[in-house]
Amino acid sequence: MTEFLTPRPLAAGDRVGEFRCGQEQLDAWLRGRARGNERSGASRAMVSVTREGRVAGYYCLSSSSIVRDLAPAGLAKQQPDPIPVVLLGRLAVDEEYAGRGLGASLLQHAVTRAIEAAEAIGIRAILVHAMMEHEVPFYERFGFTRFPGEERTLFLLLADVRATIA
Predict the structure, then answer these.
(1) How far apart are CA 62 and CA 55, in angstroms?
(2) Residue 143's CATH number
(3) N or C end of the chain, less CB within 10 A?
(4) Are the C-beta atoms of residues 119 and 90 closer than 8 Å to each other?
(5) Is 2 inside a domain boundary?
(6) From CA 32, how far away is CA 11, in angstroms rounded?
């Protein structure tokens, strides 16, 4: 049996007030903005909870775009302007559950959801803005590439993901 439940949409009864990942901005977003963003349609938050109902980790996705002239050649090739992307706006794991693979599991779930969305609408890549420099290698391990000139902005082409899982 796994320690964490499969990520699911944020629900009214989720215990978000107990969540602490070590970055107050990420904690505050979950407590104060996630539900409002859900209601307004700005983003979708997914949570992984423990069997006791405590939020162990979360991520959020939203639609976004990149101006083609600012994109690396591999991302911009034969694309419209702007280039449609999915933004991985937040990804965090509670400090109590860090180091157990939950971050990787959440990222894999987010990528899967982006691929599913790309079946219905045009999406070229997943974009992430790492909040801290030490987070960049985490994304690079999963195939994300840094934007030239942007230290903490990374992208992952959905075509590359599809080729990997095919």
Answers:
(1) 20
(2) 3.40.630.30
(3) N
(4) no
(5) no
(6) 14
